[in-house]
Every structure is written in structure tokens, then in C-alpha cells.
């Protein structure tokens, strides 16, 4: 693995871990009543930051995956045109990463209330 890719991977992992730690107060036990008390502004701030980090980093990861997979897929299609269907499936799987990040961001924002 190239040094630049390894550094990007470690930075992404660190940001994801920090975002996960920032969201922990959102999952604290709620009181027994129907109405939950409003969240502190600090918790709201970190919740929004975690949602943004989840969506943003997932989009960056999906963009990198589509760039690598798309280039390889087009090379394979140039050599054997009958592989176009499989190539499209692999590019779609790489795009799924962004969708998963968006779903996690929506779940975090839904938890914020």
C-alpha cells in the first residue's frame, strides 16, 4: 500500500472513531416519560458534526472506490466487451458506501430529535 493511501486511511479511521465517540451521549438512557428532555447544545453540536462526518467521509470513500473500480472496469471492458455488466455491478457496489453513510447520518439526525 502506498504511503499516501495509508495516511489517508488512518486519518479517516481516526475521524470516524472521534465521530463515534461524539455520538455516545445521544444513546444515553432516556427518562421513563413520553417526552424526553431537550438535549444540551453541546450534544447537538457534536451530533450534527458526527452526522456530517459520517456522510462526508462515506462520500469521499465512495468517490475513491468508484474512481479505482471504474478505471479498472473500463480497462476490462476495453479488452473484453462482454464484461460490461459485471463492471457496472462493481461500480454500483462502490456507490453503496455513500448510501450507507447517508443512512447513518439520517439515523444520527433522527436521534437528535
List the helices and strands and how they pair.
Blueprint: H1 3-23, H2 41-79, H3 84-112
Helix pairs in contact: 1-2, 2-3
Notes on the protein architecture:
The chain has 113 residues and is mainly α. The protein has a single domain, classed as F1FO ATP Synthase, CATH 1.20.20. It is 79% helix and 0% strand. The chain contains 3 helices and no strands. It has helices at residues 3-23, 41-79, 84-112. α1 (3-23) runs antiparallel to α2 and α2 (41-79) runs antiparallel to α3. The relative contact order is 0.15.
Q: In a nutshell, what does this entry contain?
A:
The model has no long low-confidence stretch (mean pLDDT 83).
Annotation keywords:
113 residues, single chain, F1FO ATP Synthase, elongated, mainly alpha
For the CA atoms, what is the radius of gyration?
A: 19 Å
What average pLDDT do the residues reach?
83
Shape: elongated
Assign the CATH superfamily: F1F0 ATP synthase subunit C
| Low-pLDDT segments, ≥5 res | none
Q: Would you list the SSEs in sequence order as H and E?
A: HHH
Q: Please indicate the percent range of residues in DSSP E strands (runs of 2 or more).
A: under 5%
Structural domains: how many: 1
CATH class: Mainly Alpha
**Classification by helices and strands:** mainly alpha
- Total count of strands: 0
CATH-defined architecture = Up-down Bundle
What characterizes the major β-sheet? none
Assign a percent range to the helix content: over 70%
The helix count comes to 3
- CATH topology: the name is F1FO ATP Synthase
How many angstroms separate the termini? Answer: 42 Å
